[in-house]
From TrEMBL:
Domain of life, per lineage: Bacteria
InterPro entries: WH_DNA-bd_sf
Name of the protein described by the UniProt record: Uncharacterized protein
Length: 249
């Protein structure tokens, strides 16, 4: 038979156990979120050579979001190629239909004034096609990145160099002709060329690597490469023209 003092202790011990369990659960969730954020930033840097710092969305903005948004996503603000973007982090990329997701992201974008990017651990293959059809921005860390708002479309990284074909890529030919006929791009970086030609980073990067592999340019600098042409004047034309492909077959 329990004495009175033992009975009075039990509720207190039980209450403390609940508090400790809840604290541990919250701490575990926070740690997983931190790892998810770091993993996302690391993936973006590995693919785009762009450092991204994610910070929680300001309270004045997060307070304006519907409960459904707060329940399904952790919203963070960051920058990509000098553009402010909102990262909507979730561990379940299939919880909402793409149509509902589009409406939700349109609402977030209207209140924040920045494009929204879904970041999910996993998205079912059938949903990836639907998200792409809806032109929704999304990132699956270590697997795929599709951000049409910023003209970025990258799938899982392939073996280095396997995407460089024998025939000159169309944008590589455009780069050469633009440099020869319109204006010099000597010293330009990939970001500047993205803006000039309105194409994705991967397209510019692949074209520059093709030109470098074929000895027409060198890529100089550290993390941010700049184009340096290897030939000048008539010699440049003589080296480049045999590589051109006629647009008419």
């Amino acid at each position: 038979m329990l004495n009175q003092s033992t009975k009075s202790v039990h509720p207190f011990v039980f209450q403390n156990t609940i508090i400790i369990f809840a604290y541990n659960q919250n701490f575990e969730i926070m740690c997983k979120s931190d790892e998810f954020i770091k993993g996302t930033a690391a993936y973006i840097y590995s693919v785009l050579n762009e450092k991204v710092s994610l910070s929680p969305l300001e309270k004045r903005l997060s307070d304006t979001m519907p409960i459904a948004v707060a329940r399904n996503f952790k919203l963070y603000k960051g920058g990509l190629f000098d553009r402010t973007v909102i990262f909507a982090l979730t561990h379940d990329g299939n919880a909402m239909s793409p149509a509902l997701l589009k409406r939700t992201f349109n609402l977030i974008e209207s209140r924040c004034g920045s494009p929204v990017i879904l970041v999910a651990d996993n998205i079912a293959s059938y949903n990836i096609g639907r998200l792409t059809a809806q032109r929704l921005n999304f990132i699956i860390p270590r697997k795929q990145m599709f951000i049409p708002s910023l003209l970025i479309d990258l799938k899982k990284a392939r073996t280095k160099g396997t995407d460089i074909k024998g025939v000159i890529p169309p944008i590589a030919q455009c780069l050469l002709l633009y440099h020869l006929e319109v204006a010099s791009i000597d010293g330009c970086g990939a970001k500047a060329l993205m803006k000039i030609f309105q194409v994705s980073y991967s397209t510019v990067n692949r074209s520059l690597r093709w030109l470098s592999k074929n000895g027409l340019v060198s890529l100089e600098g550290g993390k941010t490469k700049e184009v340096r042409f290897c030939y000048f004047g008539k010699e440049r034309w003589e080296k480049a023209s045999p590589l051109f492909v006629s647009p008419v077959e």
